[in-house]
Amino acid sequence: MFNLGMIIADAAAGQSAQASGSVSVILGVVYVIIILGFMYFVMLKPQKKQERERQEIVNSVEVGDSVLTTAGFYGVVIDVTEDMAIVEFGNNKNCRIPMQKSAIVEVEKAE
Question: Lowest CB count within 10 Å: 2, 38, 74, 110, which one?
């Protein structure tokens, strides 16, 4: 015949299994959120800070500054516009090249 105690125990075990299953799903979601937050603070935030510093360097370029370009050339800024700079390379006054400000890596201010 039917054992009422076993039926109740089986029902309670099923509910317990469902509850532990939903708890594990919630914990999994929390772990993913924690990992994504960690990745943001370890990878993306420093990259944004570095980009902001680079933008400040590019915006601070003025006439007479010594600059280093992404190609590895050192030169002196002759003229500056909104997004372009004319850079003179070497002692030859004929070697003036217009370039984008974003191609400037380092700036040494003129004294």
Answer: 2
Strand arrangement, sheet containing 96-100: 96-100, 84-89, 74-80, 66-69, 104-108
Q: Write out pLDDT tens, residues 8-57.
A: 555 555 555 555 667 888 888 999 999 999 988 888 889 999 999 989 98
Q: How many residues can be counted in the chain?
A: 111
* Sign, Cα dihedral of 44, 45, 51, 54: negative
37-62 burial by CB neighbour count: b if 16+ within 10 A, else e?
eeeeeeeeeeeeeeeeeeeeebeebe
Q: Domain map of the chain by residue range?
A: 1-59, 61-108
Strands (E) across 1-111 are located at 66-69, 74-80, 84-89, 96-100, 104-108
d(CA 110, CA 62): 9
Q: Does the 61-108 domain belong in CATH 1.10.8?
A: no
The alpha carbon dihedral of 28, 33, 34, 40 has a sign of positive
